[in-house]
Write a structure and sequence with these properties.
153 residues; mainly alpha; 56% helix; 0% strand; elongated
């Protein structure tokens, strides 16, 4: 494949692509370094993004999407700052040119901006599931839901 001419913004995004590649390739073999801390942070962020998307989905975007109404649970907005929602998509889950707008200071993630609103919605959903589906779950699965509630409330 012949390389094509690239613009400055394309050159500037390469470190971000490299970061994605490094995290993917090096993660399993590196322990006890900042790389591990980043992996834990990004793992939690991915789960936060997935849960936010799930709780807000009023309809399926794709035929195999799971949405709250599948369980009779109302979809509603998770109250996190708009810039965090945008970063979940643009900085965390996609390689986009908007990453170039981040400074070292704005690139940091602040758990307080999103943990509690998502946690509250998770607890609400867990209560709903236990109250409405406990008869349909195995004892082990019900126990997992109940233990989750007990440990987080």
């Amino acid at each position: 494949m012949k390389p094509k001419p690239i613009e400055e913004s394309q050159i500037n995004i390469l470190p971000h692509i490299l970061y994605e590649i490094e995290m993917f390739l090096n993660l399993p073999s590196v322990r006890g370094t900042n790389l591990g801390e980043y992996a834990i942070l990004e793992s939690r962020l991915i789960h936060a993004r997935n849960l936010k998307t799930f709780f807000e989905a009023g309809r399926q975007k794709y035929p195999d999407d799971v949405i709250p109404s599948d369980f009779g649970f109302d979809a509603k907005s998770v109250d996190i700052p708009k810039n965090i929602s945008k970063r979940f998509n643009k900085d965390l889950s996609h390689i986009s040119y908007s990453r170039l707008k981040q400074t070292p200071e704005t690139q940091k993630w602040t758990y307080a901006d999103f943990i509690n609103p998502i946690k509250s919605r998770c607890i609400e959903f867990a209560r709903f599931i236990i109250n409405n589906y406990k008869d349909k779950m195995s004892k082990g699965e019900l126990s997992r839901w109940e233990n989750l509630l007990e440990s987080k409330t």
